[in-house]
From TrEMBL:
GO cellular component terms, A-Z: cytosol
Region (Disordered): 740-761
Single GO molecular function: peptide-N4-(N-acetyl-beta-glucosaminyl)asparagine amidase activity
Subunit and interaction comment: Monomer.
Species whose genome carries this gene: Arenibacter palladensis
Glycosyl hydrolase family domain ranges (all copies): 262-739
Keywords: Calcium, Signal
Alphabetical list of InterPro entries matching this protein: 6-hairpin_glycosidase_sf, GH-type_carb-bd, GH92_a_mannosidase_put, GH92_N, Glyco_hydro_92, PNGase
Domain Glycosyl hydrolase family 92 N-terminal: 30-256
SUPFAM superfamilies registered for this protein in UniProt: Six-hairpin glycosidases
Cofactor: Ca(2+)
Endpoints of the signal sequence: 1-24
Name of the protein described by the UniProt record: Alpha-1,2-mannosidase, putative
Amino acid sequence: MTNYTNLKNLFLTLLLLFTCVTNAQEAVDYVNPLVGTDSKPSMSNGNTYPAIAMPWGMNFWTPQTGKMGDGWAYTYAADKLRGFKQTHQPSPWMNDYGQFAVMPLTGKLRFTEDDRASWYSHKSEIVKPHYYSVYLADHDITTEITPTVRAAMFRFTFPENENSHVVLDALDKGSYVKIIPSERKIIGYTTKNSGGVPENFKNYFVMVFDKDFESTKTFSGEQLLEGLEIETDHAGAIVSFKTQRGEVVIAKVASSFISYDQAELNLKELGTDDFDTIKKKGRAAWNKELGRIKVEGGSMDQFRTFYSCLYRSLLFPRKFFEYDLNGNVVHYSPYNGKVLPGYMFTDTGFWDTFRALFPFLNLMYPELNAQIQEGLANAYKEGGWLPEWGSPGLRNVMVGNNSASVVADAYLKNGNNQNYDIDTLYEALIHGANNAGPLTAVGRAGADYYNKLGYVPYDVDINENAARTLEYAYDDFTIYQLAKALNKPKKEINLYKKRSLNYKNLFDPETKLMRGKNENGEFMAPFNPFKWGDAFTEGNSWHYTWSVFHDIQGLANLMGGNEAFAAKLDEVFSLPPVFDESYYGFVIHEIREMQVANMGQYAHGNQPIQHMPYLYNFAGQPWKTQYWVRETMDRMYTPAPDGYCGDEDNGQTSAWYVFSAMGFYPVCPGTDQYVLGTPLFQKTTLILENGKEISINAPKNSASNKYVNTLTLNGKTYSKNWLSHKELMQGAVLEFEMTDTPNKTRGTKSEDFPFSLSNEK
């Protein structure tokens, strides 16, 4: 008996100790910035790089394994590091701009990217959002980085060596460096970019060391030079020291899109703080933002996955503004090349991020999103159009006019509490909705056809025409919603309401799927619903048919009613993952990612269908939403380097997980509603910006208890399949009773279904 008691006491002591250790961890400790880095062009497990940065920081830093100009700047499987790069890359497909690289080394002076590269191991790598450390084996140097929003500090720990060096590589396509030994400083600029910039684009940088230089060199391409200054296609600088074993050299670095003087001003973000203080402040900054959502009652892997996704949701769009000498907000315009007052943000594609990332900002960061809206108004005034994919200026990629959703959703949810120029933004939406832009991805390609026929025809040489039509119809719905809120003329309101029903023009009653239509009104033929591309964007008809976010009931009616609609949803998961890649001529990575997922035609790795599991709520079968959402969370996301199932895409795929783990999702931005799913954790607490809290409690939640039996909202039984944004913002307590058996009576009545335009009174 005594032995049993002792063992019991020991067990309880160990359990208490484990609980204390676990509770001592802060949110940032769960983040793994390497999630998604085990990727390649043919198979994306995220296509991310470890962004060492502050939330929405102007400048990110990343270790660089790829060669200069390679969009895959860091891949987990690589053996060598070529440097540490300041980056503004939103995705490998968009590539980078405003980048330069820093690399320390010892011994023989080797400055080209291949020669200076060093073997490294993940075993000697520490990766946090606010801190990076790695041991460079070939040089016997430990390099550490910790950033601020526009600056960063390096800490190099050198061995004893007569020839220790730091290379600053300003890269090709036009660059300049100048070494100023008396100030222990390197200044310069880089112009390397991937498009979307004015002719005068430069990223100005300054790097200051705390140790005198023994010698200096510059280089042009592969040619080593003796001078202190060079302007050429590919410029670089090298500063050298004698170091003792374990000697630490500190380097402070900052950049600006405005000027050298502004770069110096941005360097002051570091102040007089030492490396560890900057690191501590960075950790605190991340904990502040990540800690706004607290999850409890889950596995360690679920915690790590959740906070890693939350980290990715807090990176883009990046701040593209700076503070002048008087503390005023200013920006270099990527639209006209001028330095102007006011906010500017960039590096986001609305085709991806309108779906969940921007609604997440509207829920948790309305003040920041108000600044983003001001930045969009500035973009319109400076460039004549709203960006659909900005990096940093207008880029010609993807389809749709989804800036309408981003603008409308922000105002409809928080506009009354924020102060920005919604009139200019509304003008921008109307302009973009009725005109083809200077690029096919700006404004609306085929706008004249769409406005005349109600669809973009298949046979008029406008690619991805069915996808454009479906997205334009949804975008028109968001304009309709915004026009009502702004009390626009009845005629204008009715126009956009009518246009929002244009999705019906592409519904094929024979296949009960969306199908391209020719100018003469006949459907295109032959039709293969498994054909990717062609009339659709990075998907097929099985993926895009559900892109009627605003009128799911209308879509269900076309399919023959709710039962037929739900059966069609079922087919997405039961069909084999067959595909027709003939439009592309090869298997694009998005196809392969669907094929290997073993979820039928459900291609969660790409955006068009990510909302689809939530649509069972509109047909009175919410338990199927609960099943498939949990399946997707469990199977498609992990906290490992291969932890995504496709491109992460600027926070969108991450925000899907964050929302879904909380138990609801914004199927239709531009409405007040979130559609219910199934919470992942036993308890989730959201601390809203207004000081209110949302408590989401599911104490019986488990791997098997994935179904919602009952729900109470603020103590009252709640049968609806949706939650109101307005009501949540007032603070709310949700109590989920979870079970392992589907409840096929809750949420089955039409009055419990989420919003559909066809049901609007």
